[in-house]
Amino acid sequence: MSTQSLAAQRRRRREIFLGVLTLALALTLSGGAVVLFFGTQDDTLEPNTLCPESGPKGHVILLVDKTDPFNFTQKQAFLQYLAEFGRGKVAEGELFSVFALGADFTSNARPVFEMCNPGKGEDKNIWTSNPEKLRRLFDDRFLAPMGALADQLASETPAANSPIMEMLQLVAINGFRARNVTGPRRLHVVSDMLQNTAGFSQYRGETDFQVFRDTAQFQKVRTDLSKVDVEITYLLTNPTRQNRRHLKFWEDYFQDLGAAIVSVRLLEG
């Protein structure tokens, strides 16, 4: 066999080897792309709530007391407070439920708004999600309704009753327990925190929780708020009664229910 023939065979074998290697590399890369696309693409969203199909990543509940009307300054402060929930107080993938506290708690048993934060799509990969669609969902179905909520949660006239404990019970039942979200649970309460019902009134009754705890009324309104972080935004309506002793009552109250007050602030006005 000539030297030229041997060289041609070696060249052909090298070309076949390189061709096989290139094909194997291409298959590996394409397979990796398939895994990347199908294995790491973002959670799809449940269409009605915009929550991840795998379930919400946490649950944030806002309870707003509308038994006393906001004055002008309080209304402006509340608008800014409400906007905080659209600017990061509810994380992407978390469920946001809003309850209203009215004189008749049986008429406010269900959330007036409930939706997950779908995220704004800013950190999403265009190959694994649709950032523009997420931004529109965030703006139209999560952020925009906040403005409408401000009017829905405001009252023009004061109410005779303020069933705060009864509403906290409904929040636990129809909020946290109904959704049973695995993840952080936070409760934000905007209220003067002055319970006022026939069964118990902080305008005329005992403000020591340990005394109240032994009453039949407490057994009636007690509930389970285990592992819930509570943030209270005080409406200052009666500074004489809304003192440190009053706050201590609610600290002990929530602790008995398994929750903890982690923050207290005043709503200006």
Written account of the structure:
There is one protein chain. The chain is of the alpha/beta class and 269 residues long. It has two domains: 1-40; 59-266, Rossmann fold. It has helices at residues 3-40, 72-89, 131-143, 145-152, 164-179, 209-212, 216-221, 244-256; strands spanning 59-65, 95-101, 113-116, 185-191, 229-234, 260-266. It has a six-stranded mixed beta sheet with strand order 3-2-1-4-5-6, with helices on one face. It is elongated and about 110 Å long.
List the topology elements.
Layout: H1 3-40, E1 59-65, H2 72-89, E2 95-101, E3 113-116, H3 131-143, H4 145-152, H5 164-179, E4 185-191, H6 209-212, H7 216-221, E5 229-234, H8 244-256, E6 260-266
Parallel strand pairs: 1-2, 1-4, 4-5, 5-6
Antiparallel strand pairs: 2-3
